[in-house]
Amino acid sequence: MIREKATKAALQQQIEGLQNPYIAHFACHGRFNFTNPRKSALILAGAKSATHNVNSDDIKDLTLEEIFNLSLSKCSLVALSACETGLTDIRDNTDEYIGLPSGFLYGGATSIISTLWAVNDVSTAILMIRF
């Protein structure tokens, strides 16, 4: 899906198709929710600004709760070309962490590429092309 077509509704229609690819690439905005990590999300087309602090239920994004329900057993790589998609809540010192990568790993993907900082669109595009 490209640009305006990359909506949550379109993704939900194709969600079963995500079971078969070897690589899934999400080039969008990301948001980590430190208050409720399960509401962390990939911001898809048609959503409000990724920096706008609103409840995840109010915008058209793909939350970590929904990512946990994906079946990605044949997916060897998920590339998250979005800001701060590798963040986890470091305030809780446990053996487990909750963040967007853990949702994709739980779904069966074997490898995740994600970022810990805000990324520039052009630099990220060049990096992913080279990768």
Q: Could you characterize the architecture of this molecule?
A:
By secondary structure, this protein is of the alpha/beta class. Helix content is about 20%, strand content about 15%. Helix 3 links the parallel strand 5 (about 75-80) and strand 6. The protein is globular and about 40 Å long.
The rough form would be described as globular
> What proportion of the residues form beta strands (DSSP E)?
5-15%
Low-confidence stretches: 50-54
H/E order of the elements? HEEEEHEHEH
Order of adjacent strands in the largest pleated sheet: 1-5-6
Number of helices: 4
Radius of gyration: 14 Å
Count of individual beta strands: 6
What does the secondary structure layout of this molecule look like, with pairings?
Blueprint: H1 8-13, E1 23-26, E2 29-31, E3 41-43, E4 61-63, H2 64-67, E5 77-80, H3 100-106, E6 112-113, H4 121-130
Can you describe this structure in just a few lines?
This protein has 131 residues and is an alpha/beta fold.
Structure characteristics:
131 residues; 3-stranded antiparallel β-sheet; 3-stranded parallel β-sheet; single chain; alpha/beta
